[in-house]
Amino acid sequence: MNFEMPNFALALPEIFVLCMACIVLLVDLFVGERNRFVTYLMAQATLVGAMVLTLGLSSSEAQYTFGGSFVRDTMGDVLKAFIYLAVLMVFVYSRDYLRARQLFNGEYFVLGLFGVLGMMVMVSAHSLLTLYLGLELLSLCLYAMVALQRDSIAATEAAMKYFVLGSLASGMLLYGMSMLYGVTGSLDIGEISAYVAQNVGDNLVLEFAVVFVVVGLAFKLGAVPFHMWAPDVYHGASTSVTIYIGTAPKIAAFAMVMRLLVDGLGGLHVEWQGMLVMLAILSMAVGNVIAIAQSNLKRMLAYSTIAHVGFLLLGVLAGTENGYASAMFYIIIYALMGLGGFGMIMLLSRAGFEADRLEDFKGLNERSPWFAFIMMILMISMAGIPVSAGFWAKLAVLQAVVRADMVWLAVVAVIFSVIGAFYYLRIVKLMYFDKPEDTSPIKPAFDMRIVLSANGLAVLALGVFPGALSVLCVEAMK
Amino acid sequence: MLENYLPVLVFLALGAFFGIAPLLAGFLIAPHRPDSAKNSPYECGFEAFEDSRMKFDVRYYLVAILFIVFDLEIAFLFPWGTVLTEIGMFGYMAMVVFLSILVIGFIYEWKKGALEWE
Question: Domain B2-112 adopts which CATH fold?
């Protein structure tokens, strides 16, 4: 028996992150409490190194290795770059927040890095096995991160719920995958796609497999009716973990949808389109309507995420290259907005005080006009009001849906988007027209001030010049 | 045809003999002086009969999880060892990588004090 030596160079970023995560784990054991900063710096250096490697290896054509179970292509490179960027910002925002709560442990950063590795594997997976491997690596890190705050009852409860429902979702996905394997006789996404293209027609097992795969994906994305874990987990976990769960893994989940549904089961587009239409409409409706009733900002942002997932699905279900590119654009913009939104909560929080109620944002303009402005940009963008990145993102998916001859769906989406604008603009009103309840000064660290400002301004800049990113997304889908 | 099964018959007989003979010998020859402590089943330091809904020390779970990790490692090592000559350098290095990751985990748990009972 001879093994063909795989081309390890293509997986260099993954290998680098794995080695560095192990080194960070060991270094953290020996540096002690006082020099924990070293762990933080090494984690950030890992992300920067991975970014350099990914961009350095990037080329326009897709390359396969490890017997076809690993792929490096433009879509993967772009998504990975944004995953590194998102996690880098998460670590910057979280540092002082964690320190103020005696949660500044090496485990947070090590689990964060292993989670990044899981996302990278998901993004680059070209076989059901690698896809599942990456997903589980990511999920296990997330469960543990939610549970990191051991003395908080809410966090423990959230971790438990997340773990149980996450396992259920993994089970669904695995069942679907096993049926796919049973029908097609292969785990390779390329071979599955070839089989589906040849044998399209009434194959009942294949249709069942699609149903289970879609259910599993919907669970992981948090689309209605498989969303029930999201609000509790977002609310219960410490904000430093919520911001992690709410941003980078969504990018990876989008990659998983692309690899499974589009690359693998593209031939069954008619089958999964109907299911995605239902998921999208329900997600937009439930997310936007229930978010209005929330008084806790983390919970509100959780429902807002659900609504955004609905919009993301609109792009995917259109089933055209343009639609996929618009969905990719949407998820990247969403990640940036989510980072800013949760970053603002962490900015206003301090030792022993969690600024996650809507009242905590009252009169922010008097306390800090600059950050009130940043928050306004973020909220306007989430609502999808013109001259913000969120507007172009919504416009792109709506265009894709209209081009796929589903004008009614676009109309429904616009209606729910208008309903959703209410709760985003309510925060703008609280910040600018109400008197502050809490007048303690806002003194963020220098790097947090810079990064959070850049985050907000990037959303504004992408609203004025969306061209470059949108062209990049179209390139990635070719 | 039937004589082909003779070795199996011999094997069964020998197996039965070696299974039964020591037990029988122990029953016949060994000294037999039971007391209450000797007759009670013992395991893990728990009382043999009490309410099953009791608090478990979380350390039991920790040890159980660590045990499973290294138990599975052995399960991987056995088949790997039997085909080592065929899988060559690639197979050898794959196991080296696998074991190094386990060793890193081992160092972590040791330094964190997961192996200390008290």
Answer: Methane Monooxygenase Hydroxylase; Chain G, domain 1 (1.20.58)
